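Weekly structure sync, notes
Attendees: PL (lead), two postdocs, one rotation student
Agenda item 3: pending single-chain targets
PL asked that the sequence for the first pending target be pasted directly into the notes so everyone works from the same version. It is reproduced below exactly as submitted, 219 residues in total.
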Amino acid sequence: MLAASVERIERTLPDGALVLDVGGWGRPLTRADWVLDVMPYATRGAYGTDGTPPERFGESTWVQRDICDREPWPFEDGQFDYAICSHTLEDVRDPVFVCSELVRVARAGYVEVPSRLEEQSFGVHGPWVGWSHHRWLIDVRETEIEFVHKPHVIHSRQSDHFPAGFHETLSEEQRVQTLWWDGGFEFRERVITSAEELDPYLAGFVAAHKPRRRRLLRR
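Predicted structure, written out during the meeting:
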């Protein structure tokens, strides 16, 4: 999670606010009172933690379950004052369901996902485009998140991705997209069924942002 976002959450949330971290296993937020993840409590923190120690959650408030299993999460409507979902939606098979449960169980929250600038870059994680385990290209707007299935063609057509080295020109803030929401947000999957729609979606985005890389290289 962006350090500035962690700082803002810790600074602005009242001490008594009840906080849920959805998908926080690899790097849980210490401010969370509850964590919901498919992985067990004992293996948490593979990539460290976010926030100021100590952890407010414990084994009794760590709920291990598949967040996409189409069963309501074991929380009441509006039970949480705040919910965090950072670098999880791009991984899971049904982010639309996860979003629906986020806005059901919490009154406000924060979402962080990779930007398309990073996810459409070659060489971020290996000799392919974006992160190997990510399923979705995501567009975050002011009050909406839109998901598009990440197609295999993105790895083979140069027009559909940024070249090697592009991601190295991105700042930490440009590598992600964030949504601070209060009272809910819109979410949907954009289903693309034709090349006539897919080609401009992929290549058009790359073409619109390539001039930025050329300017940086000239500098």
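Discussion points:
- The CA atoms of residues 103 and 184 lie 5 Å apart.
- The chain has a mean pLDDT of 95.
Action: rotation student to compare against the earlier draft before next sync.
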